[in-house]
Amino acid sequence: LEEQFAALYADEQLVAQLAAPIAPALAAAAASGGVPRVIPRFLLLRSALRELAAENAERCWLPSATLKPYLRFSLELAQLEPFKITAEISIPAHTKLSRYSPPAFVFNLELADDEDDDDDDDGGGRDVGDRNGEVSAKQRRKAPLRADADRLVVYDYAADVLEAFASNHKKAGERLMTLPLALDINAQLVEAVMSLMLSPCAVRSPLQAGGGEGVSARPPLVYYGVVLLDMCRLKGSRIPLHLLGATEQLYELCSEQMDAEAFDRLVEWFSYHLNNFGFRWNWSDWQAAAAEDAAARVPFQQLFCRSVLDRLVRYSSHTFMSAQLPSELHALLPPAPAPVLNALSGSVAPAIEALTQVITGKGRLECAQVRERLADLVQAPLSLAAQSDSAQFGADERQLPQLRSVEDSRFVALLSAILVASVKTFSHFDIISARYVELLRELRVVASHDAQLAILSGLRRLWASSSMHVTYFVGRLLTLDLVEPVAVLRAMLPADASHTGGTWDAAKAQLLKLETWECVRLVVDGGLGELESAKRAVTRAAVAASYATEGEAEFAAEKLNESRKRVRELNELCERTVRHALTAMVALCAAIEREEISESNSAGIEDAQKNERKRAAERRVLRWRLRGMAREIERKNVEVAAAAQSQLDVENAGSDVAALREELATIA
To answer: For 253-289, how does the pLDDT look when each residue is reduced to its tens digit (9 = 90+)?
Structure first.
């Protein structure tokens, strides 16, 4: 085994090939005299093996952090004959049945050792966890952990514990904090948990043999968040101080270099953590992100602050968060959530108002009666129009889809009425939609695709001030099968918008909203979840068919065929969804590149430098968002996305689009 490791990591050509994706980051860190913030695990392993080979004359390959329970039985072991391995040892590949839990990439946060920390708080008000009691003298005497080999072992222990106790977060936190090591490993535990939590969902180990079936499921993000909460609340824990340092460093690292999925996971975890510790934070640290020129100077840190505050408003309320924040940060808060009830006008408005009266209150009608009432109200195609004087939309809003048939108009009128009737609580929508879901599905089957786009456009206008409401209702519409995934993508990713004029400006404003990417992720994850569930159903049906008796064979075979047919249907749906999403993102990247070229050719002395810098920063964020989501979709849909690569042709594509296509092909 030792010889195999030595030969593998002595192959400079192999190591260079594996390190190629992060070679620029490694080179930049070396040139600046610093260390890379994110390190592939195989490079850390290589460094650890070199350390051990240099320091251990007997080449025993045992880091000091390795647990050695056999030392307690040294007398018994001394009486036994040494065991010699005669067969060759082969390292098993990472498969569904043989999984390696450590993260493929780890954060190198350079957190201070406990012996370097002050016992007193820094006075800034930052608090990411309660410290119940003082640290014991025994814990303070622990030696700091320095070597890469020791760090690697602690990362592996942490990953194993988190995976083994995925169904018991409290036990996982306790086990992590009570590893029997005479070393100070608190900083490394924080690095390990954060690395596992923020790593892209389906990223493969660079050393993984084989391919498709090596990606294993992992616990949801909230599991890691709860484990960190438990670790912070244990008596004598120093985890809060290290978590504080990790959060501050990751905030400073917010840039194009951070993967968009990792960025969103960091936002989600941090807002969840603050919610569980009374929203205590040194908010003055974020004042730079609220400055007048912050959108051009630190756009990604401003995006982080806005996203965190948006989620904190969901956990509490807009009024509560306004009272918690200094006045300088109020500009980063989202608008107070309030529905725009007159967002849609035109001839459909009276029908929506009339239906709202008959589906709510004590005098509400049953499904059959509403069907008759709807037929009386809508006897011809209705028109849609947006309130052009509404401050939320402006005159540059894209044209609404047209309702070309009576069926389209009835579907839009009834579902819009249910959305309007549900503005007070989410439960109202669940109750009312459950009452009329049969009628809604009948109308959806005969309605056109434009009717679904009209519903989604109306929903965005109704809740223009609340990303939470848009995301929730889109999720419910998908669950109830009232809108198709491709319709959500078309509504959220306006790939047909021109790169010039007000239409493109409105499209960019939509792409900068938080709910846009939450809804895209809902579509991607939902489709994958259904497909994986259907595949498991096929496995169960196949097992049942293999054990079926002669009398059960025909029924079992029929069940198996139905399950396989369902998998084929869902696979086609996922492929169509992924193809549309990737095509839209590539087209939007091309539009951004064309806008950049157009502005560079037309820029003059009279142009305002401030607006130019702001628009350039917006393009950086949009390009990062689009590329990040495309990578995420590709990672989660490797097999499906590979079939969609040939569909990504875009006319007059520039270098930026070509680079994105090459990157997606590499991932596939």
So the answer is: 888 888 899 899 999 999 999 999 999 999 989 999 9
Encoded amino acid at 57, one letter: A
β-strands 344-345, 385-386 pairing: antiparallel
Please, are residues 239 and 189 in contact by the beta-carbon 8 Å criterion? yes
- Total-model pTM: 0.84
**What is the CA 99 to chain-centroid distance, rounded?**
23
- What confidence tens digit (pLDDT) does each residue in 400-421 have? 677 888 999 999 999 999 999 9
Helix ranges, 603-654 (H): 609-636, 638-642
Nearest Cα to Cα of residue 531 among 501, 590, 572: 572
Per DSSP (E only), the strands in 1-75 are: 38-40
Q: What share of the chain is helix, strand, coil (3-state, %, to 5)?
A: 65, 0, 35
CB 528 within 8 A of CB 636: yes
Confidence of residue 124 (pLDDT cuts 50, 70, 90): very low
User: Distances in Å between the alpha carbon of 471 and those of 370, 464, 475, 515, 626?
Assistant: 28, 11, 6, 6, 19
Confidence at residue 207, expressed as pLDDT on a 0 to 100 scale:
34
Distances (CA, A) of 120 to 110, 123, 230, 237, 239: 21, 8, 22, 14, 14
Give dist(CA 286, CA 292) in Å, integer. Answer: 13
Phi-psi region of 607 (alpha: psi -120 to 50; beta: other; left: phi over 0): beta
Q: Which two tokens stand for residue 566?
A: 């369902």
DSSP E strands, 52-166: 105-107, 143-144
So what's the pLDDT on residue 36?
59
Contact partners, residue 186, CB within 8 Å, separation at least 6: 114, 237, 238, 239, 242
Query: Would you give the distance in Å from CA 585 to the centre of its chain?
Result: 17
More confident residue, 18 or 132: 18
Spell out the residues 6+ positions from residue 28 whose beta carbon is closer than 8 angstroms to its own: none
